[in-house]
Design brief:
Length: 754
């Protein structure tokens, strides 16, 4: 073992950049929700968390170097905020834990931090609020304690910290910050706090420290790179630093970091293989530690070990110190494939033979680090996974995917078909999934409830949801989606080319976990999916009921997608299936059809050079799904928790008639983006943050609607929550929706006043 870096100089070192932290059976989710409900105290929560960390270390113990500090009770960015003691005053409570959850979830006294997508993934992080006067101080207790947990087991532990550059680039200016201030302006102050964190880890016995700088995988300005260089010259003088990326190529940041004196780099060689050429062109010291991220940390397909070994060999030609790792943290994949092999309705054997979840990926890493390990080449995609009829239909469809009439004509036709008042009220789609609903679905899945009884129970829920909405006075209703387990999985279960897992859970944020389907083959619709449910709901009311579909980009983004063909081709296949569903809904008399694309921003490449191509195929797939609709059929869409300014042109290119957008946590910042882009369709800026348990007051929502009316005009504004209500309780939903209707009514009266 090398005494200066802790890195073997004679063999490949096996490691990982991070690991799933919810537990193999979602133990952390249950512990959190029990604590939030007041059923368990802080000590019980910590005991459950310690058990999850112990399981993580058990799994990671097969590696030469084990990452520590990657566990989180809610979000690792919030952990970094706590580690530098920079929580906003409004979130400080009488205990660290209460303060932490106030920032994460909000409470009666304060709104939570804004939440948005973590680069091009479905993970949501909490956005730090940093101002010129934000005080920083080192709080190393969590990092030190988790490092010691691993050391006490005799493991070679490597602490992991979110880097100061990424932390500030991911932050937003605190309220009241002067114009022109950027959080990165505070980098010098923050770096000194990181020096203190590193000192505390060194005192605990830590050697090299992994500092994650995923923001360096995106395009960075010369000023940002200069600031990065200054920060790492200071930090590298304190201890051995390995800078990890994980979400694309480091590119020009490679030279910046190496010149600053860092000991090593962890490279994403799945999405950033260009970094190999960059390194080969530099005069890299043979002492530099380069970690080859050749095992995909974000998808579930087995690696082509022969290809991975070739990339590792290229690094070995550059330096004497090479490691093997995942391309990113394994946070984005399920823990273990084993439950799928024994599930009653398990995955096809031909499919499971090609899959690797987190535990299996650790074995791939170990095999690559072992000179005698396997170097197998991945086999070709089976011909049975192709559907020539789908491919022929797409080839014959042509390039035209535009609506039959421009928006102004559609708007007039839609207003005549479905007259609505100014600021019409609606919801995003789902209503609370009660314990009784979940029990019924589980019983049906397990064969304990016959089909007729299950449908009767779901229909009864539709009746109740329609009655709730009519009582509240909403203008456009939804059927509540009681029959849907998940907005993507529900469709995946009824389309060819998909498989669903029994226990393939992945953290989305906090305690929210999702079970992404596996899109492995060509996609087709064999029968209508939603038509009967929407038609039944419409039969219960005179008010319009929206048809509810999930868009092609979101279905891809929230699935584990085949990697043997371009995403654009797969998106078009999904869009073609949805196009048929839109046609059948329209034929059944549905006047408003919502095709949700909450993940539109999510798949946006981190590098600008790749974005135009993505926007082209992503928006085309949406239009392919919706362009067959008649002019008097309103096409709605929904987007949530994104930096909308980065995709505002793509939102316009969707050519939807109404776009509902998360706007509550970001305090209507999206309105300025819409104005700059000269966006002309209608907008439903979410005025109720459904990811917080607080019930917003009517005057609070009315104030937000007034901002929207001032920016867009009264004829282009809808009033709605910022997301579906599936995870909320009726005790929160009823008063919040009542306040929403009251707020819309008040602002409506103002705009209609002579």
């Amino acid at each position: 073992m090398n005494t200066t870096t802790g890195v073997r100089s004679t063999a490949l070192q096996s490691t990982a950049l991070g690991y799933p932290r919810i537990g193999s059976n979602r133990e952390l989710k249950r512990a959190l929700e029990s604590h939030w409900a007041g059923r368990t105290d802080a000590a019980a929560l910590e005991a459950a968390a310690a058990a999850v960390r112990a399981e993580m270390l058990d799994d990671l113990s097969v590696l030469d170097a084990v990452p520590t500090g990657t566990f989180s009770l809610y979000d690792h960015v919030l952990d970094a905020l706590a580690a530098v003691d920079a929580l906003a005053p409004r979130h400080r409570r009488d205990s660290d834990l209460a303060s932490y959850f106030a920032a994460a979830r909000g409470d009666d006294a304060a709104a939570p931090l804004e939440m948005t997508k973590w680069f091009d993934t479905n993970y949501h992080y909490l956005v730090p609020e940093i101002g010129p006067d934000t005080a920083f101080a080192a709080r190393p207790a969590k990092a030190v304690a988790e490092f010691r947990e691993a050391k006490d087991r005799g493991l070679d532990a490597r602490p992991v910290l979110l880097g100061p550059v990424s932390f500030l680039l991911l932050a937003k200016p605190a309220e009241g910050a002067p114009e022109g201030f950027a959080p990165l302006d505070r980098l010098g102050d923050l770096v000194e706090v990181y020096v203190d964190l590193l000192a505390a880890l060194a005192e605990a016995g830590a050697g090299p420290v992994q500092i994650d700088e995923p923001a360096l995988a995106a395009d960075r300005t010369p000023a940002e790179l200069e600031a990065t260089a200054a920060a790492y010259r200071r930090l590298a003088a304190e201890t051995e630093i390995i800078v990890a990326g994980g979400y694309g190529p480091f590119g020009e940041a490679i030279g910046t970091l190496l010149d600053a004196g860092v000991a090593g780099l962890a490279l994403d060689l799945v999405r950033g293989r260009g970094d190999l050429e960059t390194l080969e062109a530099l005069n890299v010291s043979r002492e530099t530690f380069l970690i080859a991220g050749v095992i995909d940390g974000r998808n579930i397909w087995k690696a082509d070990l022969a290809k991975a070994a070739a990339d590792i060999a290229r690094l070995q030609a550059i330096t004497d110190r090479v490691g093997v790792a995942s391309s990113s943290t394994l946070l984005h994949v399920p823990v273990d494939l084993a439950p799928e092999l024994h599930a009653e309705h398990g995955l096809p054997e031909e499919l499971t033979a090609r899959l690797a979840f987190a535990r299996q990926k650790l074995r791939e890493i170990v095999a690559l680090a072992d000179p005698s390990g396997s170097r197998a080449t991945r086999p070709e995609t089976p011909g049975a996974w192709r559907d020539e009829a789908v491919r022929e239909r797409l080839a014959g469809l042509g390039a035209d995917a535009d609506r039959r009439a421009p928006y102004p004509e559609r708007r007039a036709a839609q207003a005549e078909r479905v007259p609505l008042p100014p600021l019409p009220t609606t919801t995003i789609g789902s209503f609370p999934q009660t314990a009784e609903l979940r029990k019924a679905r589980a019983a049906h899945r397990q064969g304990l409830m016959i089909e007729a009884d299950y449908h009767a129970r779901m229909r009864a829920e539709v009746v109740a949801v329609i009655a709730e909405q009519e009582k509240l006075g909403l203008d456009v209703l939804v059927h509540g989606e009681p029959e849907r387990n998940d907005m993507v999985q529900y469709f995946a279960e009824q389309l060819t080319g998909f498989a669903t897992t029994a226990a393939g859970w992945v953290q989305s944020y906090g305690s929210r976990c999702v079970r992404p389907p596996i899109l492995y083959g060509d996609v087709a619709r064999t029968a209508p999916i939603t038509v009967d449910w929407i038609a039944y709901a419409q039969s219960l009311t005179e008010k319009p009921v929206k048809g509810m579909l999930t868009g092609p980009v979101t279905i891809l983004a929230w699935s584990f997608v085949r990697d043997d063909q371009p995403l654009a081709d797969t998106a078009d296949q999904v869009a073609l299936a949805l196009r048929d569903e839109v046609a059948d809904l329209e034929a059944a008399g549905t006047a408003i059809i919502q095709v949700d694309e909450p993940a539109l921003r999510e798949l946006l490449p981190v590098r600008a050079a790749s974005r135009a191509a993505y926007r082209d195929w992503a928006t085309r797939s949406f239009r392919l799904a919706t362009s067959g609709a008649r002019p008097d059929t309103a096409i709605h869409t929904h987007l949530c928790y994104s930096e909308f300014g980065e995709v505002i042109d793509a939102i316009a290119a969707l050519d939807a008639d109404v776009t509902s957008i998360e706007a509550s946590r970001s305090k209507m910042e999206v309105l300025a983006d819409l104005d700059r882009a000269e966006y002309r369709s209608a907008v439903g800026p979410g005025v109720w943050d459904i990811h917080s348990p607080r019930v917003p007051a009517a005057d609070e929502m009315a104030a937000a609607l007034r901002l929207a009316v001032a920016a867009l005009g009264p004829d282009r504004v809808w009033a709605n929550p910022d997301c579906g209500l599936k995870t909320r309780r009726y005790e929160e939903v009823r008063p919040s929706l009542a306040n929403l209707v009251e707020a819309a009514g008040a602002v409506r009266a103002e705009v209609q006043r002579p």
